[in-house]
Amino acid sequence: MNKQHDYYQARAAHQREMAAELSGSAREQHLTLAAMYEALATEPKRRSAAEPPAKAPGPEAEEDERAYLQRRAREERARAADSDDPGVRRIRFEMADEYLRRADALRLG
Q: Quick one: DSSP state of residue 57?
């Protein structure tokens, strides 16, 4: 489809491979991260020409999504800090970094 889709699909596949070798909460975290990458890989459905144009989202809608992503990043960082398992901590920090990257992408583009 496009580079971004391929990137997220590859990341999801890698997380599933890592999860296959683990068990318990670490496996669960890798599967959660894989699901997150799968969700990021999906593109919004393209509108057909017959559909009326949707109202363009205003700056407040973008800010709401950015605020949501930033809040999720803070939550993941807090969960990472509370974890005793270094593998789970690393995964949670990766998830937080991905949320922040998505928030920055909204701000820039």
A: P
